[in-house]
Amino acid sequence: MKIKISIPTERIQNPIISESIIETGILINIMVANIDSTYGELIADVSDIRFDRIKRALESRGAIVSILDRPIHRDEEECVECGACISVCPMNVYAFDELWNVHVDEKKCIQCGLCIKMCPHAALKLGE
Amino acid sequence: MVKKSIHEINRKIEDGSVNVVTAEEMVAIVEDLGVEGAAKEVDVVTTGTFGAMCSSGVMLNLGHSEPPIKIQKVWFNNVEAYSGVAAVDAYLGAAQISDTRGIQYGGAHVIEDLLRGKEINVHATSYGTDCYPRKVLDTTITLEDLNEAILLNPRNAYQKYAAAINSSKRILNTYMGELLPNFGNVTYSGAGVLSPLSNDPDYETIGMGTRIFMGGAQGYVIGTGTQHSPSNGFGTLMIKGNLKEMNPDYLRAASFTGYGTTLYVGMGIPIPILNERLAATTAVRDEDITTNILDYAVGSRDKPVVRKVNYAELRSGHVQIEEKDVPTSSLSSFKKARQIASELKQWINHGEFFISVPVERLPCEGLAKPMKETQAVPLVKDVMSEFIVTIKRNQTVQDAAKKIWENSFNHLAVISDTGELVGILTAWDISKAVAANCFDSVESVMTKRVLTCAPNEPVDLAARRLDRYGVSAMPVIDTHNRVLGIITSDNISKLLARRY
């Protein structure tokens, strides 16, 4: 499953991702990482059964962990099914079905945001 | 020989016996029945397209205020319209952007908001005359309050359009959408098999006065579009229709990141099948319509062709570029194009829409010209410094410092043994090396990802790049990566000093 790890300012100096991985021995695949001196936010993939343990390890060190259920939202009213989003997505979230509707496979999304800038109709936004 | 007239077809529409198919359905019909059979069988082929058409706008008449005003400048929701036509007429272009919100909101959005019945703020100013004494006006209007709101689009329904790709190392934000670096994606526009003009490429039935589907209402072709270029397959149409009768399902505002606003226009043209020739042209398939993929990394008017492509390849989701499968994105909606073609088909079947006889045909020959420019655009090679100090990658930082000091030249081009550019070193890099107490080879302290430019690029493009990346100089290189000179912000300011 895709999870979001937020690291607040006061913890940004600590290597809490590495510590949590070493402590639990659970491997996480980091797909997006936005970290600067004030805040950190990572999107990672972790197996469903290990989620609780890694969440505990990370949260005991001050991170905030949430599951990305709907990483991307599409406004069906605004969308004109042009498919502009399809080619910019590195994870192949978007595809045409046989009737030329844009099909969204939300689970694959890593919230890179490329599609949001691409969409001419402002129909896409990142979910929480 | 099949020969039908538009009047005969209209009589069939009246008595309900007309046979209408979409341009997509026509492909299989011609395959089955042949051209002659299809021409006998089918009376009308409907087409459709729904895509970004920047050259669109609305002609509005506000009615007269009390006291009256001769509007000189006018804004709708802070988007400026042109009002140099009489007192209370204004033309609002889809691509005009908001003075306050920038490219998030533009003329196209005002048009969509009007269509959705929303209130629009109007601000107008004038110099005041004896007959129109008022100088400032502020009001709110809705579509209903206007005397006329005529969608009047100078250039719509491109027969086909070139596809876009990006060979550079950074993302480009264009009117063809987001183009990923290193040939990362291809974007295209156009309805292919359903494209109105591609189904009647000789403009045998589409002419001035042709009644069409426009934004969900009945509109008209009023002539060739601007930049009409039929000789190379890029014909265009000028169309008009009553905004008050349109439907937001078929008229949508859009904003392309980094580019601006545009209007997605839904239009469809019925093509009466008067003879075999028209049966043949309306059987056009995606694979028969070819266009070029152009490299948008080149910021000039004539972009290099990366390859030829047809719409079947584009619509398959991938095209081959240098043995790589590159994903494609459509910017126009094929689903909507289909909806338009089938809605138009229904209108005709239900006797709500009749085919019109064009009063004049459109020219089938001619090419759009580029702009005549009387001032030569200076090129990089005209302003660059040909004097450049180079240093080999394996020399020491101290050698570099000495070179900078001796030549009083702030940028050293670092080159390989074979003379290719591999990096750049500035006095600042040396200060940094000194501060860090790092005195290894030049290679370890130089900037490796160097911005460069070509000698034949316009200076404007080089200046834009310097500004964008916040650097003060770029080496000018030839196609073999050898340094020809350097262009600095100094060179550019001298150019401006000469000009003014």
Architecture overview:
The complex is a heterodimer of chains A (128) and B (500). The radius of gyration of chain A is 17 Å and the shape is elongated. The mean pLDDT of chain A is 91. Chain A contains three helices and eight strands; from the N terminus they run βαββαββββαβ. Chain A folds into two domains: 2-67, ACT domain (Alpha-Beta Plaits, 2-Layer Sandwich), CATH 3.30.70; 72-126, Alpha-Beta Plaits (2-Layer Sandwich), CATH 3.30.70. Chain A has 128 residues and is an alpha+beta fold. In chain A, α1 packs across α2. A four-stranded antiparallel beta sheet of chain A has the order 2-3-1-4, covered by helices on one side. A two-stranded antiparallel sheet of chain A has the order 5-8. With 500 residues, chain B is α+β, with helices and mostly antiparallel strands. Chain B folds into three domains: 6-51 and 157-361, no CATH class; 63-146, no CATH class; 380-499, CBS-domain (Roll). The longest helix of chain B is centred in the N-terminal third of the chain and has 19 residues, at 23-41. Classes of the chains: A alpha+beta (128), B alpha+beta (500). Chain A binds chain B through residues 80-88, 95-96, 99-101, 114, 117-118, 120-122, and chain B through 50-52, 173, 177-178, 180, 184-187, 252, 254-257, 262, 264, 317, 326-336, 338.
Strand tally of chain A is 8
Query: Overall pLDDT of chain A, averaged?
Result: 91
**Protein structure class of chain B:** alpha+beta
Strand content of chain B: 25-35%
Order of helices and strands of chain A: EHEEHEEEEHE
First-last Cα distance of chain A = 14 Å
Which sheet architecture does the biggest sheet of chain B show?
9 strands, antiparallel
Structurally, how many domains make up the residues of chain B? Answer: 3
Q: Sheet with the most strands of chain A?
A: 4 strands, antiparallel
How many H/I helical runs of chain A? 3
Mean pLDDT of chain B comes to 94
